[in-house]
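Hi R.,

As promised on Friday, here is the backbone we talked about, encoded as structure tokens. Could you run it through your design pipeline when you get a chance and send me back a sequence?
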């Protein structure tokens, strides 16, 4: 046999319990970010049964240390321990330095996206080197876990999942496309090559 198939499942956490209403300024954005990081998930937000089934069939479930990620993992795998790691935490979202302007949270998200596009156009770095290194380390860690457990389900975050996916692809993992909604699953597979022994 050429080797068993390995699998890494990257799951975006459930919907946060923190709700932001009204317009906010730059300082308000930072307060929202702190509150969002501290919040768990909405108790009414349930994963699709297919995602729960994937978790039940996994050899190990791991999660970011953020409350919303850990609580999501525990909801997916309630009967067993979840391994947490700061490697899987969300990227630090730094908004444009727009002072004296109040906007809805969605407008802040759009300006953040526009900032990324402009950086790409002018070929400026999007991320700090430390964030890129963290993504590489996370990809290596998940690959090692897949070597040991076969299937790894990792609960992480929207922006970091995109960065982590690129690192996994560069390491030889094949991805099945999916959406970006809460509880969505990006599935990566790889064949584990078994080296021939002298007795083969």
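Update: got your reply. Pasting your designed sequence below so it's all in one thread:
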């Amino acid at each position: 046999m050429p080797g068993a198939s390995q699998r890494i499942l990257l799951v975006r956490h459930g919907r946060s319990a923190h709700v932001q209403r009204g317009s906010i300024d730059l300082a308000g954005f930072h307060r929202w970010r702190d509150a969002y990081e501290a919040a768990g998930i909405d108790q009414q937000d349930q994963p699709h049964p297919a995602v729960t089934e994937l978790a039940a069939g996994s050899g190990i479930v791991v999660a970011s240390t953020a409350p919303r990620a850990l609580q999501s993992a525990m909801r997916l795998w309630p009967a067993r321990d979840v391994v947490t790691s700061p490697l899987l935490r969300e990227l630090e979202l730094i908004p444009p330095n727009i002072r004296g302007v109040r906007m809805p949270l969605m407008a802040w998200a759009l300006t953040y996206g526009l900032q990324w596009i402009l950086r790409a156009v002018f070929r400026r770095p999007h991320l700090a080197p430390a964030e890129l290194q963290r993504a590489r380390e996370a990809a290596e860690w998940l690959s090692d876990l897949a070597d040991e457990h076969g299937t790894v389900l990792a609960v992480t975050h929207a922006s970091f999942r995109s960065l982590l996916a690129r690192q996994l692809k560069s390491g030889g993992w094949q991805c099945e496309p999916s959406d970006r909604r809460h509880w969505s699953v990006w599935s990566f597979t790889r064949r584990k090559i078994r080296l021939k022994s002298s007795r083969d």
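One thing I noticed while checking it: The CA atoms of residues 21 and 111 lie 18 Å apart.

Thanks again,
M.
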